[in-house]
Amino acid sequence: MTTSDPTPTTFAALGLSAPVLTALSEIGYETPSPIQAACIPHLMAGGDLLGEAQTGTGKTAAFALPALELIDASRRIPQVLVLTPTRELAIQVAEAFQTYARYLRDFHVVPLYGGQSMVVQLRQLSRGAQVIVGTPGRLMDHLKRGSLKLDELKVMVLDEADEMLRMGFIEDVEWILSHTPSTRQTALFSATMPSVIRSVAQRHQRNPIEVKIKSATSTVAAIRQSYWMVRGHDKLDVLTRILEAEDELDAAIIFVRTKVATDELANKLEARGHAAAALNGDMTQGLRERVVNQLKSGQIDIVVATDVAARGLDVPRVSHVINYDVPYDTEAYVHRIGRTGRAGRTGHAILFITAREQRMLRAIEHATRQKIALLTLPTRSEMADRRVSKFKQEVLDVLEKEELHFFMEVVGQLRDENDLKAHSIAAALAFIAQRDKPLQLDNTKGSDLPTTSEVRAPDARAPREKRDEAPGRRRDAADGKLRPYRIEVGRQHGVTPKEIVGAIANEGGLSGGQIGQIHLFDDFSLVELPSDLSNETLATLKRTRVCQQALQIQADDSTPMPAKRFGTKPGASKRPGAPGAPGKKPFKGGKPFIKRPKE
Predict the structure, then answer these.
(1) Angstrom distances, CA of residue 37 to CA of 42, 107, 173, 384
(2) Does the domain formed by 474-595 have CATH 3.30.70.330?
(3) 223-374, which class in CATH?
(4) Contact predicate 222/341, CB 8 Å
(5) Where would I find the DEAD-box RNA helicase Q domain in this sequence (predicted)?
(6) Run of H or E including 199
(7) Which of the residue ranges 87-96, 142-151, 392-401, 497-506 has the most confident prediction, judged by mean pLDDT?
(8) Which pTM was predicted?
(9) Contact between residue 469 and residue 513 where contact means Cβ atoms under 8 Å apart
(10) Which of 62-73 are b and which e, b meaning 16 or more Cβ less than 10 Å from the residue's Cβ?
(11) How does pLDDT run across 478-510, given as a tens digit for each residue?
(12) Which whole number is the average pLDDT over 78-91?
C-alpha cells in the first residue's frame, strides 16, 4: 500500500489518549501533518511501515505518538527502540518523546550516544526506561556488555535509514536488528529509498505498508528569505531590532507555536510601542475577524499568530512574515511565508533558528529548493542613528502640520518662571517623549547582540582554532599537526578501524578530519591525532572503552608512522610490539592493516 497525500484530520480523531492529546494541545499541535495522519493509525494497530519522507515533515511525531500508546508505563523495561544516525538527532527524538509524554505517569526515555559518559548511561539504564533512543555504535556497546536488554521490545524504529547507510552503519543496524525479538513491530523512515534500504526492509519487516510523502517545493518567487541564528533569551531583542530596521515593513505576521505565546508576545510588542494583536484558535470567530480587519485597515501593523489561526489569511499589505518559532515541518513553513508577497507585491520571510534547529533550516532549504541567506542585522550604533533620524523627522512633521500655540505658551511660562533656556526645555521634553524607546542606547546594559559578521552560517567552517566539533568541547587541534598515539586495543580484541574512529570522535569530540592513519597490530594500535590534544581530552580517551578494552591512550613518537599504504616490510618498524620487533609475533605476512578513515 502506498499513501502519497492523506487528508489531515484532528489528533483526537486518530485515537490518541487524553494525556497525549493534552500535551499536544499545550505545545501547539493542532492538525496532524500528512505523514502523521498516514502513519499514526497504522502503527497504533501494530503494523509494520516503510516511510519515505524528508526531515521536517513531522515524522518524529508520526512514530513517537503511536509508540507511546503501545507501551506499558507500569513496566520499566525497554519496549521501544529508536535508532538514529547521529547524537544530535538522538537527543532531539528523546526530547520529543519526553514532551509528548509529559502527562504519562512513570514514563522514562533514555538517549544512548557516544560523547556522553558511559557511567551516566549505565546509571540511567539501571533505573529503567520504556523508550531507548540511540546511535548504532553506543547501542552495540550496551548490548555487548549486557547493560541493555531487548527481550521484550515491542517497537523498533529506524530513523533516517539512508543517512545510516551513507555513514556506513547498515551492518551495525542489521546486527542490532538481529538482537531484537522477531515479534517486534518495525517502522523504517528514509528520505530516499535506495535498494540497500529496501532490502533491509524486506529482511526485517512483515508486510509493511509504504507511506510516501512529498515535501512542499513551491515558494513564491517574490519572497526574499533570510534567517538569523538566535539564542532563546535574545529573541525578543532581535525581533524588536528587525521591526525597527526593516525600512520596507508595512505590516507583519509573526508566527509562534502556541496559543499562549501569541498573547504573551503581542503584549510585549505593545509594551515596546508596536501596534500588535494576537490571533489564535481560542478566540471567537468575531474577534478573529476584527483583528484581521484592523490589520487590513492599518489600525494595527503586527499580528502574532499560530499556524491554524493564520490559515487562509490574505492581507495584501503584509510585507513581512517572521518565524519567531521554527515550524514543526516544512509544509507549515511554506504555508506561513505564503502570507506575504501577495497581489504581485514583494515580501520578506525571516526565520529565527537556534543552534539545535539547524537541521530544520537544511530541510526547509531542501523543500523550497532555495538557499536561505543570513540576515543583515544593524549594529547598536546604527540602530541609535535610525532612532535619532526618525525622532528628528517626527519633530519636523509636527512643526509643519500641527497647531502648537497652546504648547508654546506653556513652554514660555516654564521658561520665565524658572529662568530656563528654550533649548534646555526642549531637551527635557525630548527625553520624556523618548523615555520608552531611548535614542541613546546604553552599552553598559549587557553585551550587544552579535553583528551579522559575528554570526556564522551553518554551512561555513569556522577558523580551525575556533571550531567546536562536539557540544561543550572545543576543538583541540590548533594547528592541524598530527602525531601518533598508542591505544591498548588491537586485532586480538576484534577491533576495527571504524570502531576506533567512532570511539575517538564521539568520546573525544573530534571530527573525522582530525583523525589520520590507523595501524592495527596484535594487542595495540597506532592512530594519528592532533599533536596538541588537551589533558582533558586525553583523560577522557584514556577511560574510553572499545571492545571492552580501555584505550589507555598515550603519545608515542619513538618511530614515525609508516607511509599510507596497505602493508609494510617485515621488521621495518622496531617499535615494541610492532611486526618484527623482539618478543612479539608478527602478523600473518608481517603486515599491519593501515587505513585512513574517510571524513
Answers:
(1) 9, 24, 28, 50
(2) yes
(3) alpha beta
(4) yes
(5) 9-37
(6) helix 195-204
(7) 142-151
(8) 0.55
(9) no
(10) bbbbbbbebbee
(11) 345 888 999 998 888 888 888 888 888 877 777
(12) 91
